[in-house]
Amino acid sequence: YSVDGSTALITDTINKTVTEWKAKKGLLPLRCALAATYRGRIVIARQPDNLSIWYASRVNDPLDWDFGSIEAPSTKALTGTNADVGQPPEPITALIPFSDDYLIFGCSGSIWLLAGDPGAGGILTNVSYKTGILGSRAYCFDESGNLYFMGSSGLYVMAASTREFKSVGQRRLTRILDSVNTDDTLIQMAYDSKRQLVMIFLTPRDGLSAGVHVVFDPALDALWLDQYATAHGPFALCGIDGASDEDRRYLLFGND
After folding, report:
1. Distance (Å, rounded) from C-alpha 61 to C-alpha 31?
2. What's the sign of the alpha-carbon dihedral 107, 179, 202, 149?
3. End-to-end CA distance of the chain
4. What is the CA radius of gyration of the chain?
5. Is 168 in contact with 216 (CB distance < 8 Å)?
6. What pLDDT, on a 0 to 100 scale, did the predictor assign at position 170?
7. CA 136 vs CA 130, 145, 255: distances in Å
8. How much is the average pLDDT of 107-124?
9. Any bridge partners for residue 20, and if so which?
10. Rounded CA gap, 151 and 159, in Å?
11. Quick check: 106 and 113 in contact, CB under 8 A?
């Protein structure tokens, strides 16, 4: 199930078909740009005319979007306009499932956390008003479950055990990481578990200029520049968590 701000699609990987994603119950909210799976629900968000609202499908049923159902709220489809749960006051920029316990809402200038299921007492609470998350792909997890993300003032890490976060990299490369324009730059991150490095890719959206690629070593708290060819972009990437060393890297997808 995927959304891109315009269309909503279902990709059948067995039969190799792609069809329009339509609800069998209720109406699927249109033109959402973000999607995540959380506690058996599909959560979608960021409509162009309502950037801060989110929606959640029925538990274990991505085709049920009947928000007006009289059934128990613990399993039925829900929306962020529900006063018992809440919605962020700012545009949502990222949906990040943090294990099966929390769903992080990255916003333009703040971060919010949904603890538990939204239909079973889950409440949206603020984590930070000091930074947001700069894009839907501007994060990654290491092998210990710690979350790294690009915020308003550089690179941050949120510990899996405490949910507290801090700036990392000892303020190096501040001129690069503190001044990213998300309108013309695509920000993506991946974790290289073979080398235990956090990879940050800043790709010009025009596809013509060479991107800036930054490497962070958590063990040394060190940042340095890396560089791929312009054709490599990347415009998309995919982390791989396999058993062998070569299957614990990442794939880059570019112009070529």
Report:
1. 20
2. negative
3. 26
4. 19
5. yes
6. 62
7. 18, 18, 21
8. 88
9. 9
10. 15
11. no
What lies within 8 Å, CB to CB, of 15 at 6+ separation is: none
Predicted pLDDT at 179: 75
Tally of residues, the chain: 256
Find, among 78, 56, 82, 72, the residue nearest to 1 by Cα.
Answer: 56
Matching residue, tokens 């990442």: 250
**Is the whole-model pTM more than 0.85?**
yes
Residue range 3-26, pLDDT digits in tens: 999 999 999 999 999 999 999 999
Q: What angle do CA 7, 59, 143 make, to 5 degrees?
A: 80
pLDDT per residue as tens digits for the range 173-228: 777 777 788 889 999 999 998 889 999 999 988 888 888 899 999 999 888 988 78
Cβ(189)–Cβ(137) below 8 Å: yes
Identify the CA nearest to 80 among candidates 114, 55, 103: 55
Task: State whether residue 116 is helix, strand or coil.
Answer: coil
Q: Are 66 and 74 in contact (CB under 8 A)?
A: no
